[in-house]
UniProtKB/TrEMBL annotation:
It comes from Desulfoprunum benzoelyticum. This is Ornithine carbamoyltransferase. SUPFAM superfamilies: Aspartate/ornithine carbamoyltransferase (SSF53671). One of its GO terms (biological process) is citrulline biosynthetic process. GO terms for molecular function: amino acid binding; ornithine carbamoyltransferase activity. Its EC number is 2.1.3.3.
């Protein structure tokens, strides 16, 4: 298996499915009151250059829940803020911690850390990917709908980091993925081309959100302006206005269709309060499952 988790692309379907199955088991054991201590004496470093509620807390809770410990470093805490080279940071951190969990802007940052690190580097979101989130979302869909193979999953809105990781997952898991994105906001062309080759025609990028949700088992939505795109917020509000996941759009989808949002949500923008608070929406199960997935990831990469 790959030594680092930088995107889903480097992993086989079976390797990705392992994380989901193990997370299901760890969740069940936790709910039964079983204590886990397999990472006792181990330490991870969290290096976060963007804000986070769920990913940070769920990685920390996961590590403590397996008996390990965590050092959290925000952007302003390290010498990276004063331009220390990434290759030096990677080699220094490798002497102290058993893995680095990194949230940053460019994918090249995690790639370079990984190139110089002797311990695993785990991508906790970059501008290009959010691989751990998609694993917890797959776990959530599996809990509600069973195996993903043959399902239709719709992505509504920006062709962003989440969309790119979903495309890579489609290439592995063999579900139908239809992304409805405005012109100019499509997912990464290279990722799309590589995953399409793997997915045998199961990935489509279209313009019309109504067409995307017809027959969908899952509707997936995320913010219109991701972290780092705050200056584009007002322009994006206009461009994406017809991509809101609301009751009218959901009326086009089957009644048993579920709605995923990785959170944080901007109610009244990409999703209405009505849909987010509806029984169809599983956003808080997704949030919980991040912790179980992160346990499975940390255990596999460190133990
Ligand atoms: N879903 C997610 O990654 O949330 P945070 O930004 O709060 O970590
Ligand atoms: N696409 C969003 C996801 C947040 C979890 C962002 O990058 O800000």
């Amino acid at each position: 298996m790959a030594k680092h988790l930088l995107s889903l692309e480097e992993f086989s379907r079976d390797e990705l499915a392992y994380f989901v199955e193990r997370a299901v088991q760890l969740k069940r054991e936790r709910n039964e009151g079983m204590a886990h201590r397999q990472l006792s004496g181990r330490t991870i470093g969290l290096i976060f250059e963007k804000p986070s509620t769920r990913t940070r807390v769920s990685f920390e809770a996961a590590m403590y829940g397996l008996g390990g410990q965590v050092i959290f470093l925000s952007a302003r805490d390290t010498q990276l803020a004063r331009s220390e080279p990434l290759k030096d940071m990677a080699r220094v951190m490798s002497r102290y911690v058993d893995a680095m969990v990194v949230r940053t802007f460019g994918q090249e940052v995690v790639n370079e850390l990984a190139a110089y690190s002797t311990v695993p580097v785990i991508n906790a979101l970059t501008d290009l990917h959010h691989p751990c989130q998609i694993l917890s979302d797959i776990m959530t869909i599996q809990e509600k709908k069973g195996p993903l193979h043959g399902l239709k999953i719709a992505w509504i809105g920006d062709g962003n980091n989440m969309a790119n990781s979903w495309i890579q997952a489609a290439g592995k898991f063999g579900f139908e993925l239809v992304l409805a994105c405005p012109a100019g906001y499509e997912p990464d062309a290279g990722i799309l081309a590589r995953s399409r080759a793997e997915a045998a025609g199961q990935i489509a990028v279209i313009r019309d959100p109504e067409l995307a949700v017809i027959g969908a088992d899952v509707v997936n939505v995320d913010v219109w302006a991701s972290m780092g795109q705050e200056a584009e917020q007002n322009e994006r509000l206009k461009i994406f206005s017809s991509y809101q996941v609301n009751a009218a759009l959901m009326a086009r989808a089957p009644a048993e269709c579920i709605v995923l949002h990785c959170l944080p949500a901007h109610r009244g923008e990409e999703i209405t309060d009505e849909v987010l608070e509806s029984a169809q929406c599983v956003a808080f199960d997704q949030a919980e499952n991040k912790m179980h997935i992160h346990k499975a990831i940390l255990e596999k990469f460190i133990a």
